[in-house]
Amino acid sequence: MTTRADGRALDQLRPVTIERGWSSQAEGSALISFGDTKVLCTASFTNGVPRWLAGQGKGWVTAEYAMLPRATNERSQRESIKGRVGGRTHEISRLIGRALRAVVDTKALGENTLVIDCDVLQADGGTRTASITGAYVALADAIEWGREKGFVAKKAQPLSDSIAAISVGIIDGTPMLDLPYVEDSRAETDMNIVMTGSGKFVEVQGTAEGAPFDKAELDQLLELGAKGCADLTVLQREALGR
Amino acid sequence: MTTRADGRALDQLRPVTIERGWSSQAEGSALISFGDTKVLCTASFTNGVPRWLAGQGKGWVTAEYAMLPRATNERSQRESIKGRVGGRTHEISRLIGRALRAVVDTKALGENTLVIDCDVLQADGGTRTASITGAYVALADAIEWGREKGFVAKKAQPLSDSIAAISVGIIDGTPMLDLPYVEDSRAETDMNIVMTGSGKFVEVQGTAEGAPFDKAELDQLLELGAKGCADLTVLQREALGR
Amino acid sequence: MTTRADGRALDQLRPVTIERGWSSQAEGSALISFGDTKVLCTASFTNGVPRWLAGQGKGWVTAEYAMLPRATNERSQRESIKGRVGGRTHEISRLIGRALRAVVDTKALGENTLVIDCDVLQADGGTRTASITGAYVALADAIEWGREKGFVAKKAQPLSDSIAAISVGIIDGTPMLDLPYVEDSRAETDMNIVMTGSGKFVEVQGTAEGAPFDKAELDQLLELGAKGCADLTVLQREALGR
Amino acid sequence: MTTRADGRALDQLRPVTIERGWSSQAEGSALISFGDTKVLCTASFTNGVPRWLAGQGKGWVTAEYAMLPRATNERSQRESIKGRVGGRTHEISRLIGRALRAVVDTKALGENTLVIDCDVLQADGGTRTASITGAYVALADAIEWGREKGFVAKKAQPLSDSIAAISVGIIDGTPMLDLPYVEDSRAETDMNIVMTGSGKFVEVQGTAEGAPFDKAELDQLLELGAKGCADLTVLQREALGR
Amino acid sequence: MTTRADGRALDQLRPVTIERGWSSQAEGSALISFGDTKVLCTASFTNGVPRWLAGQGKGWVTAEYAMLPRATNERSQRESIKGRVGGRTHEISRLIGRALRAVVDTKALGENTLVIDCDVLQADGGTRTASITGAYVALADAIEWGREKGFVAKKAQPLSDSIAAISVGIIDGTPMLDLPYVEDSRAETDMNIVMTGSGKFVEVQGTAEGAPFDKAELDQLLELGAKGCADLTVLQREALGR
Amino acid sequence: MTTRADGRALDQLRPVTIERGWSSQAEGSALISFGDTKVLCTASFTNGVPRWLAGQGKGWVTAEYAMLPRATNERSQRESIKGRVGGRTHEISRLIGRALRAVVDTKALGENTLVIDCDVLQADGGTRTASITGAYVALADAIEWGREKGFVAKKAQPLSDSIAAISVGIIDGTPMLDLPYVEDSRAETDMNIVMTGSGKFVEVQGTAEGAPFDKAELDQLLELGAKGCADLTVLQREALGR
C-alpha cells in the first residue's frame, strides 16, 4: 500500500484550521490553514456597486489573490515592484471570484460590493483551494455584517449554498487528496475541484503535467475531490457556528 | 429535438479550415478558422534555449495568445496601450503552452526554442481551442524546419502525439459541441477539453457559469469533447499531408 | 539600366491587392497587400465623441498601428508584454491618423468617432504606406455604414478626397518607388509621401539614412511618389466599386 | 491630567508581542504587534551579493515594506494592480533598510545578502516603527542561520548593536509615546525615532502636521522616544532569548 | 581649526542666488542656486480644486521634484523611460509639499490649486533644501497672481509665514552648514531642517549614515540649521522685494 | 505686405542665443534660445558602447528630448508620473538622434557613446529645431572632451559636417520662417527642415494641418528653410569660436 510522506491516508485532508474573524478591520475574515499553507482571507463590504453595474438592483463579488514574497521556500520578487501582476496570480484571482459568485444570488445581495482578498502568508501547496475555502467563511460573515447594517434585506438569502475547493493528483500512478508542495511538484496529473456544499461541481480543472490521463483516472480524481470538499464543508459549518 | 441557430447537429463542429504555411516569414504557420473565428498561428524556431535552461540538453516550447482590438463585435483597447496584459490573455497563453508541451519530448527536441504566437484576427467563440488546434500544425512544421536545418537530430521524435482542443457546453440543459459566441454567452456550463490524437486528456476545464453541474452532465460533456477532438485530429492530419 | 531584384521598373508598384470587407465584425475593413506586406485595416464606428470634444458638432478620427510579433523575419517581443508602446509604433499611429484626418470634414461627419486599426500581419517594407492606403478603404466603408444607420446625415460629405501613401528611396544613387525590405534597408534616402486623390501633398517625410540629399534628388523622389499615389488611387476606387 | 483613550500613561507603549520564528519558510522571522498593528517580518538569507557589490568582501542588507489591501479600515487598491509602488511605501522601505544597515557591519557579514520583508497584516498606527523593531529580530535569526550553514564566519560579529523604533507625537499640546491611528491622525507634530540598543540616534524624522514646533517640544519628544526605544530593546532581547 | 574645501566658515551658506520670475509661462517662478546646485521652481495656479476636495472652501498645494538626467556628474536614466518614479524622487516631492503646506492657510487660499514643480538643472548637494527655499518664492508670486486675477480674496492672507530649508551634517566629527556633494558624500550624519521665517521647525530629518549620533551632536546640528534658515529667510525677502 | 506679430520679416529668425558650456557637469552643453523657446542641451560622453555594438570599432550617438511640465502655457503631467513616454516625445527624440548621426562618422568616433539630452525649459514653438541646433554645439564640445582625454584619436574627424534645423510654415497662404507658438498653431502647413552646414537636406518633414499643399508651395518652404539653416550655421560657428 502507498504510504504518503506525512503518513496520511490517500483520501485524507491535511490538518485544517479556520480562525474566523482574525482581522479586526475587515467586515469578514478568516485565517485558514491546510497544513503549512496559511492564507489570510478578508472580505470588504461596500454599499453600492461599480458604475457599470449601477441601477440594475444587483450586487458584485470579486476576489484578489496574492502571495507574500517569502511565503515560499525561495523569495520571489514582489509584483508591485515588477509593476505587473503575473499570469498565475491573475488566473487564481479569477478562479476564486468565479467560485464565490457561483453561490451568490446577486439580486438578493442588492447593490452591494464584496471584495475578497486572499493573501498567502505561507505556501505549501493548495493555496488556491485553501483561498476559496477560507474566502467563503469571510464572505458569509461580511454578508451578515451588511445585513446588520441594513444594507442587505432582512429576509434576503444572498448565499444559495456554501463553496469549498481541494486539490487532487496522481503521483506514481496513485490518486491522492490535498497535495502539499512535495507531492504537487511530482504529480503526473494535477486537478483542482470546486464544489458546493450540496455536492455539485462549480469548477473542474485538470492538467496532465506528465503523461495524459484517461477517463478512468479522471473519475477516480473526481471522487476523491468530492470527498475532500464534503469534509471541508463540515469544517466551514463548524467555523461559522452552524 | 433541439435545433441550433446555425443548423448544426449537437455533436457537429463548425466548418473548420486550416491554411498551413500562411506566413512567409515564420518557420511554421497556420491560419485556422472554426466558423467565423480566425486565428493566425505562427511558430518561431530558435536554435538555443533561455539561459536558465542551458546545458540540460532540453528544448523549450512556449506560447502567446492575443486578440486584435477589433476581432470582436465591440472594439477593445489594446493591451500594449493599457500597458499590461489582462488576466484572460495570460490564462489562455499559459493554457496553450501547457497543451503543446504535453506532446513535446523536450529531450528529443534538443536545445531549441519554439515560440508559438496565436493572434485572433476574428473572434466568434472558441478562440482558445482554435488556437491550440492551429498551433499544433504550426509547431509540427517548425520542428520539421529545424530538422532540415540540422538543429533537430535526424531520427529524433520531438512530437510524441498530436494535440487538439474544443469547447463544449450546456445550453438550456442540452450539451453541445463547439460553441460560437451566441451560444457560449448563454451556456450554463462551459468546458474546454484538450486531448491528444490518441484520445487521452491533457486538460479539462469546466466552469459552471450558471447552475452547478453534476457527474452525469460532466460525463456527457467529456464524451462530446472527445468526439470533437477526434474530428479535429483528422483535419490536422489532412492539413499536414499525413 | 538598373534592374531591381524583383524585376520591377523603377516607378512600378509591387502587386497590390485590397480585400474590402475582410472582417465580418468591423463597420469597415480591408486586408491590403503591397507584395509580401499584408495589413489588416479595420474601422470602428461609434456614435458620439470623446468627452473633451463633446458638444462642438464635430467628429473624431484616430488610428492605431501595430505589428504581430512574427510579422517580420525575426520575432520581436510584444509591446503588450514589454508594457509600453515603442517610439516607432507611436510615430506611425500618429502619421496614419493625421493622413486620414486630412481628408475628413469633421463637421460633416457629425459627433461620431472612427478608430482605424492597422495591424501588420506580415511585413516586407512599406507597412505604414500600405496601412494608410488600406485604412482609407476601411474608413470610407465605415462612414457609409454610419450613414445607413442614420448617424451621418444623408447628404453630408465627410470625405473631401481620398488618401494614399507610398514609399520612395534612393538606392545606389537611383530613385525607386515602393521599396520592399531588401531595398529599404540599403537606401541612402528614404521618403514616405502621402497624397490626396486629387494629387496634393498631405505629408512628406524624407530622411537621409546615408549621405544627405540635394534639391534635385528630392524633386525626383517627389515625382516618383506622386506617380505611385496616383496608381494607388485608381486601385482604391476599384476596390470601393466607384 | 491627560487621559489617553486606551488608558495608557503618556510614556507607555501599547502591548507589544513578538512571535519569533512565525514563518517555517524564512531563515528568520517575527510576527510583531504594537497593539492592533501586526507586521509579519521575514528575513531571507542568500549566499552571495548583487553583481554591483561582488568581490568587495562586503554583504548587503535591504528591506521592503508593504501593506495588505485590507490592513486598514478602508480597503486600498493593491500596488501590484496599480502597477506602481506608492511614495509612502518607497519611503518606509528605504527607512527600514537604512535603520538595519546602521547596526550591520557588512565586512563581518561577508558576501551575503539579507532581504527583510515587512508586510503589514493589520494597521493601527506605528506600522513603520513596528516593522523596524520586528525586522531586527528576523535579521538576527537569519544571520545566525547563515553562521550555522557556514556562510558567516564563526567569530564574526555582523551585528554591532540592536535597533528599535517608536513614534511620538504632540496631541492637543501634549507629547505622547506610541500613537495608534486615532491619536496619530490628530497629532500636531508627528515624529519617528530610530535608536540603537545602546541609546544613540540613527534616525529622527519629525514633521509638523499642524502648528510648527519649537526646540523645547522637540526635546520632550526625543526624551519620550528614547524611553520607548529602551523598552523595546528589552522586549527584543527577551524574544531572542538573550 | 577646520577649513572647508571651498574656504567657507562652518556656519556659512554657499553663494545663494534667486532669479525670481525666470519663467515667462508660469504664474510664479524662481531659478535658485545654492553654489553649483541650480533648481528651476515654477508655481502653476489653477482656479478650482481636485474633485475629492471640492465644495469645502479650501485650496490645495502640492509639489513635484525631479532631476534632469545629466544634472549630476554621471548621467542617470530618465524616470519617464524607466516607467516609474524612484523612491528618492517620491520622498523629496512629498517633503516639499508638506513644507509648503505648513505655511499655507488653505481656507484663506480658497478653492484654488497650486502645483509647484522643482526641476533640478544641476546638482551639487542640497537639491531638496534649495527646492523648498525657491519653491516658496514661486508660490508667493503665484498667490499674488491669483489675487490680481480675483481668484484669491483681496484681504486674504493665504501665507501664514515664509519657509526655507537647509542641510547640515557632521564630517570628521565636525558639524557644518549647507553641504555640497563632496562633503555630503562623506558625512557621518546628514540632516535636513525646514523652518518657518519666524524660526520654528516644520521638519527635522536626521540620518546616521555612519556612526549613530547623540543628543549633544543633534543639538549642534539644529543650531546650525536654524542659523542657515534665518539667512535664507533674509534672501527670500530681498528676492520678493519686501 | 504681410506683417508678423513680432515685426519680423518673413524669412527672419527670432533672436537666437547659444550659451555654450552652461552645465558644469556635462562633457558638452548649450542653453539655446529661439525667442522664448529655451532648451538645455547636454552631451554625455562615455568610453565604450552598448553591448550589441561592441567589437565593431564604431561609436554610438543617441538623443532624448523632454519638456518640463510647466514649459508651456498650461502645465502638463510629467511622463515619469504617467509611467510612459508619449508619442510626440518619442518621435522628437528619434528625429534628433537621426539628425545628429547624419553628421557623425562613427568609425572615426571609435567605441565611444554620446547621449544628448534636450530638455525644454520653456516652450514657444520650434522646440525640436532649437534642440537639434543646440545639440550639435553640445555634441561638438563633448567630442573634443573625448579627444583631450585620449578616447578619440588625435587626428580623427568624427564630425563630417555641422547640423541645424528650423521650422517653416504657411499661415494665411504666406510661407514664413521660424514659427513661434502663436503662428504655429494657425499654420495650414508646417514643415521642419534639418540641413547640414554645407546646405544639404538630412530630414524634410512637412505636414498639411489644414489644406493639402502643392509642389510650388513646397518649393517655397524648402527655400525659406535653407535660408534659416544657413543663418543658424553661422551662429553655431560663432558659439563654437570657429
UniProtKB/TrEMBL annotation, chains A, B, C, D, E, F:
Gene Ontology biological process terms, A to Z: rRNA 3'-end processing; rRNA catabolic process; tRNA processing
A Pfam family per the record: RNase_PH_C
Reaction it catalyzes: tRNA(n+1) + phosphate = tRNA(n) + a ribonucleoside 5'-diphosphate
Keywords, alphabetical: Nucleotidyltransferase, RNA-binding, rRNA processing, Transferase, tRNA processing, tRNA-binding
UniProt EC number: 2.7.7.56
Residue intervals passing through the bilayer: none
GO function term, MF aspect, one: 3'-5'-RNA exonuclease activity
Record-linked CDD domains: RNase_PH_bact (cd11362)
Positions that bind phosphate: R88, G126, T127, R128
Occurrences of domain Exoribonuclease phosphorolytic (ranges): 12-142, 162-227
InterPro entries, per the entry: ExoRNase_PH_dom1, ExoRNase_PH_dom2, ExoRNase_PH_dom2_sf, PNPase/RNase_PH_dom_sf, Ribosomal_Su5_D2-typ_SF, RNase_PH, RNase_PH_bac-type, RNase_PH_CS
The family this protein is said to belong to: Belongs to the RNase PH family.
Protein name per its UniProtKB record: Ribonuclease PH
Organism encoding this protein: Microbacterium sorbitolivorans
Biological classification of the source: Bacteria, Bacillati, Actinomycetota, Actinomycetes, Micrococcales
Recorded name of the encoding gene: rph
